## 1
Amino acid sequence: MLSDECIFCQIIRGERPSRKVYETETIYAFHDINPQAPTHILIVPKKHIARLADITPEDAPLLGEMMVAAKTIAEQEGVSSGFRLVINSGREAGQSVFHVHLHLLGGRRMRWPPG
Ligand code: DGP
């Protein structure tokens, strides 16, 4: 299910440009427009789910596929020796686009706590 107004759904449908790095039947991944690291990729399920807080047990395989995609993309982008995955769920956590997405960050030293 794709949502008309959602910008990530528009990217998935090809109605908004993106720099795609990976695509399967269920997942689409592209460069973040506002990169926070030398490598910053967004891994997005094609199914429209607003927040991680809205997933159901039926979504478990899809979330697993996102993790496998992250590993594959990290290798493809040359950052498999060290990368970070982030999901912001809810405005308080910093989520600004309400379509679940996994941030893949790499290419620089990461700090902890993330802030
Ligand atoms: P979050 O704050 O976790 O919801 O992350 C949303 C990310 O999406 C943010 O890092 C910027 C990125 N973003 C927003 N609009 C676009 C867009 O139109 N194209 C691309 N490539 N990235 C976008």
## 2
Amino acid sequence: MASVTTPAARIPLIAGNWKLNLDHLQAIAFVQKLAWSLKDASVDFDGIDVAVFPPFTDIRSVQTLVGADKLPIQYGGQDVSQHDSGAYTGEISGAFLAALDCRYVLVGHSERRTLHGETDEIVGAKAAAAVKHGLVPVICVGETADDLEKHGPSAVPVAQLRTILAALPAGSDIVVAYEPVWAIGSGQAATPDQAQQVAAPLRAVIAEALGDDVAAATRILYGGSVKSGNIAGFLREADIDGALVGGASLDIDEFSSIVRFQKHVGV
Ligand code: 13P
């Protein structure tokens, strides 16, 4: 049977980005059912991290549920302000997310970049704010179809990550998510080999910016049309340590099956 190549130091992370879906009541029901589903399947949480990224208004409810029932599910925000406090209408401080026991926060998702004009400099400032407040930024990078045609697969994500990491102190605890924009919500995932061809140079950028130890310990996720049917292929790659899942993270059976990717690895 083939085995995953993720080193023991890098526990795989399966993360669900809910985007603008599920209100706080739906979130409570969803997280409860997800926890039951994973428990029924006897998932070994020593070997995998499972995280959800609900809308901000859900996080207090998720915190209460996870805390009260000691559920083995981590969570985080979908965005964070680069500012700590002040006259920034609509923004959410990393301090507020940390106060709700968030472990992670997404920064630089392609939808934030495209719809809200976030540059690599802004994403770097957000990642730095996350680290400052004790959150682990899940730094999203990825090329558009146009970039892919003009510059090949890795040039744009590598340049994005280099700029973002320049804003972080050495030794920062981060996660990197490689999400090719053309694969997001398209049903057309990258191949595992394509993802690996980008993940390897991304790990080299982490080594350059934050040191070899951080590079060896940092999880690099693939995102873009991940499903239970294709997850195992990605996790077999040397530099892919998990997935950032959009649409399929809203279906409990499907997401639970993705978390149990080890079952599909030998297929
Ligand atoms: P899909 O899984 O729906 O393609 O979305 C990926 C994504 O954007 C996760 O952040």
